[in-house]
Amino acid sequence: MVIRVRKQDSAYLYQILESYEGLTNFSTLEAEKESPYRGIALHYAPDLFPELERLLLCLEAEIGLTRL
Length: 68
Description:
It is built from two helices and four strands, in the order E-H-E-E-H-E. It is α+β, with helices and mostly antiparallel strands.
């Protein structure tokens, strides 16, 4: 799954994802230098998707995270 977040929210997102240890691995995708957004690839086990889904719904409301 790929998500997009504003650059100024990316550090916060990384901290949240790291705090849910074992839920998902993530990596930042390359983007144009001028882009105000960061693309982030999420890698997760299928059985953990319901928990990840709940977290993403909260983050969508809080920081405007977008799924691509």
